[in-house]
Amino acid sequence: METVPQRKQRMQGWFRTVLICALAAAVLVCTVTFGGERRIPIYCVDTPDKKVAISFDAAWGDEYTAGILDILDTYDVKATFFLVNFWAEDYPDDVKMIAEHGHDIGNHSATHPDMAGLSADKVTEELETTGATIEELTGKRPTLFRPPFGSYSDTLIETAESLGYDTVQWSVDSLDWKDISTEQIVDRVTRNVKNGSIILFHNNAQHVLEYLPLILENLKANGYEVVKINDLIYHGKSHVNEQGCQISDGPGKTEASGDNSDADGSDKNGGDGR
């Protein structure tokens, strides 16, 4: 039979165990809550101006690239192209042509992996390889980076930042890489666009030469100025809120509360983009 001293000792041991668990839980909560906010890429920009940016990811094929550049010239629009290294190596003349037409070129990795789980060294290798190729072909080192599949981590963003890159996603996914019609793509983009939107297209999308002029006409008819991403984002003091919207920390700027995604849009990590 358990004596009173034994019961007291058992209860004290139980209490110590509960206390240790409670303290451990408290430390964990404090670490999650106060130990540092998760890094989020730029999905859109908080701006009162009717400005949007269009972007093209280039990883597979080049049959439509010249046509895209002709359309952009026709509408006097500058865009941003995110290039994978093997694409740049396969189509060096296209890389030079994009730059010669006055468009910005961003880094889209070397081998198009899911980079969320990569170490800082592997991220550096991916970015430095592509950055060097782009600089060799254009004479200009890229300063924008878009992770493949929209997949990211704190390590990825921090490493990219240390290499001089702003990590940029999108707030409007055209879904042009899916088997949907020109009409569906145009409706999706024009329905979801707003001030500061960054729109995602692909240079090898099946209907790109059909939908691109229609979307540009609609944007201009609704008073939007289409600019390069580097001309949309803030390069001074700023922060990115929980919705992925970049906010200027300059005088008179207030934080927007809007969502970064389109109506049925992409997840903020591991999105629809390719």
User: Whole-number radius of gyration?
Assistant: 24 Å
Provide the β-strand percentage band: 5-15%
The major β-sheet equals:
6 strands, parallel
In the CATH hierarchy, what is the superfamily of the largest domain?
Glycoside hydrolase/deacetylase
Kindly report how far apart the N and C termini lie: 69 Å
Uncertain parts: 2-35, 252-259, 263-272
Give average pLDDT, whole number.
85
Number of strands: 11
Following the backbone from N to C, one meets helices and strands in this order, namely: HEEHEHHEHEHEEHEHEEE
CATH topology of the largest domain: TIM Barrel
CATH level 1 name of the largest domain: Alpha Beta
Please sum up the structure shown.
The chain is an alpha/beta fold and 274 residues long. It has helices at 4-34, 65-74, 85-90, 92-100, 120-138, 154-162, 182-192, 208-221; strands at 44-45, 51-58, 80-83, 104-107, 144-145, 166-167, 172-173, 198-202, 225-227, 238-240, 245-248.
Walk me through this protein's architecture.
With 274 residues, this protein is of the alpha/beta class. It folds into 2 domains: 1-36; 44-248, TIM Barrel (Alpha-Beta Barrel). Helix content is 40%, strand content 14%. It has helices at 4-34, 65-74, 85-90, 92-100, 120-138, 154-162, 182-192, 208-221; strands at 44-45, 51-58, 80-83, 104-107, 144-145, 166-167, 172-173, 198-202, 225-227, 238-240, 245-248. The strands form 3 sheets. Strands 2, 3, 4, 7, 8 and 9 form a 6-stranded parallel β-sheet that branches. Strand 7, helix 7 and strand 8 (198-202) form a beta-alpha-beta unit. The longest helix has 31 residues, at 4-34. The protein is globular and about 45 Å long. Mean pLDDT is 85; it is low at 2-35, 252-259 and 263-272.
